[in-house]
Amino acid sequence: MRRLSYARAIREAHAQLLAQDPRVFLIGQGVRNPWYAGTSLQDLDKEFGRERVIDSPVSENATTGAAIGAAITGMRPIVFHPRMDFMLLAADPIMNQAANWSYLFAGQVSVPVVIRAVINRGGEQGAQHSQAVQALFAHVPGLKVVMPATPYDAKGLLVAAVRDGNPVLYIDDRWLYESEGEVPEALYEVPIGSAAVRRSGKDVTLAATSYMAAQAGRAAERLAQRGIDVEVIDLRSIKPWDRNLVYSSVGKTGRLVIADAAWVSGGIAAEIAASVAGDIFHALKAPIARVCLPDAPAPTSAVLEQAYYVGADEMVSAVEKVLL
């Protein structure tokens, strides 16, 4: 085991997949530009050539459609969208084509494409460069959606996504790129649909996605100093999400806080809350709390950003509220 940054773990997964499987190729905007990709794709074009690491024009729809077509013919493309906001221009090929193709042809055709979408936050980037719209894609049958929070999962989930055989949205958060953790050198998979217990506890279940999973650990440490024992669940996958693990944890604690750094209305947190309330209402000792972004566009002021984005502070408050 070595320690790698989140971004370098993603880069290693790409390199090993490209080296191992000639069907794998990478296409997208800025795949050769550290301003777009950080170190997550650094020098892959020099190592594998520009026929397999393709810097595409600014045409999200055409690029994604071409990759989906290649996947249908048996290739294993990874499409890189450096800003999730503009991936919405590719919603048609993702939702209408990739998600439905296998169903329309009775399982005779698969679409093994990975669509990597990067969430950008902060830095006064504003409403069109800071959106986290994962719930939109998790709503669609036929798509899988993963959101790694650690370097280990960043590598393992990318490998699993490429090998899955179905269209998978792989969503990474730029705020995690410099975080470090232990990562095996060999190729390995993290199962899609499997959550992880990051901290065991008996008082409250705190389930979180991506960047918020890292913040949840900090919140739990602060609450522990006050004698509150929080169980932290890193969801890792949001379509499918690990109902068994979440339900088991809530059955033990009786309380649930869900943290997802996306808008509060109609989001992943709302889906999980509705499922828990509908399926194991008898286990709940208190109302479910959600820690999400307010229903407003991201501001372009640094001061307003501090009020807009949520993290450990808001999770601490939510946990304290469900314990009242």
UniProtKB/TrEMBL annotation:
Keyword Cell division: no
EC id: 1.1.1.-
Pfam families per the UniProt record, alphabetical: Transket_pyr (PF02779), Transketolase_C (PF02780)
Top-rank taxon: Bacteria
Gene3D superfamilies assigned to the protein according to its UniProt record, in alphabetical order: 3.40.50.920, 3.40.50.970
InterPro entries: THDP-binding (IPR029061), Transketo_C/PFOR_II (IPR009014), Transketolase-like_Pyr-bd (IPR005475), Transketolase_C (IPR033248)
Cofactors: thiamine diphosphate
Protein name (database record): Acetoin:2,6-dichlorophenolindophenol oxidoreductase subunit beta
GO molecular function per UniProt: oxidoreductase activity
Key words of the record: Oxidoreductase, Thiamine pyrophosphate
Keyword Oxidoreductase: yes
Domain Transketolase-like pyrimidine-binding per the UniProt entry, residue ranges: 4-179
